[in-house]
User: Fold these one by one.
Assistant:
Number 1:
Amino acid sequence: MEKNLDRIREVIRGNGNIVLVSGSEVTRESGMNGVRAEHMVYDIEQKYGYSGEEIMTEQFFTRQVEVFYDYYKEVVLGAREPSLTTVYRAAAELEKRGKLTDIVTRMVYDSYREAGCDHVIMLYGTVEDNKCPSCGKVFGSKYIRESKHVPKCDDCQIILRPGFSLFGEMLDNARLTKACNAIEYANVLLVVGTHLNSLTWQSMLRYYGGDKLILINTRENVGDERANYRAYGNISEIFGYITDYEE
Ligand SMILES: [Zn+2]
């Protein structure tokens, strides 16, 4: 394993234009459930009577907005802010050194930006970008979390729209194009915390034609053998090591 990690570290040391693809295990490591919360499917069904994928849809938002926002507050946001793990901080450091070009993520939390990264493409949008559909005023996650009932614009009293795409909605085309371009022109593609067979990533990763696809994840999955380099275990530990990050 050590030898393997050293080989990956040499690739990172010796190359620029690295693009980071950040998956749900990175989010999980920071203590957050994500929108889908696939690791707590059973609990969610018990509590809400629906799955997260059913609740986080336009239809549900229109018909049962109270349940929609209960789920948003309790599952998507939870009791606390995401912790800034080594992955986020090491990514910021790598960007500062001019080696990391872009970060592409499905995550809806602004952790990379909070850690100091400037080039973050958030495919689904963010929990910090909830909007009043009438006046366009933006409300962050804190406002949602602290709303006693369904969150409304403090000027118009109109129910806010979540800042991220709902299931079944089209993704923002500009963001999608930007992400595909970043992946296509990447020298090194560093995929962290997801498996390569996930539908979103499968369609995007095929744009990468290089021979430096590095995969870091908690455990092995079917389809991983397409990566040129792989390592499994504690994501933050591995990421810190291969990027020469010092706490
Ligand atoms: Zn308003």
Number 2:
Amino acid sequence: MDLQVGPGVFLPRPETELVAGRAIEALADAVRVRGAGTVTGVDLCTGSGAIAAALAAEVPGAQLHAVEADPEAARWAAANLGPRGVDLHLGDAATALSALDGRVDVVVSNPPYVPDGRIPEQAEARRDPELALYGGGADGMRMPAVIAATAARLLRPGGVLVMEHDDTQEAAMARLLARDGLFTAVLTHDDLNDRPRFTEAVRTARPVQGRATGDDDGTMAP
Ligand SMILES: C[S@@+](CC[C@H](N)C(=O)[O-])C[C@H]1O[C@@H](n2cnc3c(N)ncnc32)[C@H](O)[C@@H]1O
């Protein structure tokens, strides 16, 4: 599909097509089981809206939300997602969409995950906003951990999380998702270069302890 991108937003990468593809499958499965109009998908850290736009194009009948913290990036997302009927929320993925807690079928995310101090090899990264790249901490796992916590809050039991990560983070991701019994069926997939680059997991029925009470801070009109 055609997407509008430019200064101030992360340039979508080919690897993320596989992440989007797995999320599309999971969302389409949910529509088959539960019926169109009753299924909800969320793209956290949407950037240009690339993943959410793919979900909208491939899974008609799902209600879709996208969350982005950077107002400049969100302007590109609004251009790409408004015409596709995706609700865009400007805010922090940590606290977003509390009205949907426990009601979401699929959460997908390509969050910032580059470890601190690592200079990304890809030429595109020289033009990407810093907020889009670095996950936080020497292992880059701080933001992926936030995404896992938000997914645990949003997903219904049986709902699916699909998250992109660095090829050094497979074990840390599996530990993170297996922790506290909130997810099961943790499975890492390779990218187009056969490197472990995204992980999926299924939400169990176990309640989140010490649930965050933050709210979503602003819906952007399409
Ligand atoms: C790696 S880019 C991915 C963009 C898009 N999902 C894609 O795959 O092309 C990560 C995005 O997360 C956004 N972001 C960073 N921290 C965030 C936060 N706390 N809440 C929401 N979005 C955040 C960045 O601004 C950036 O647009």
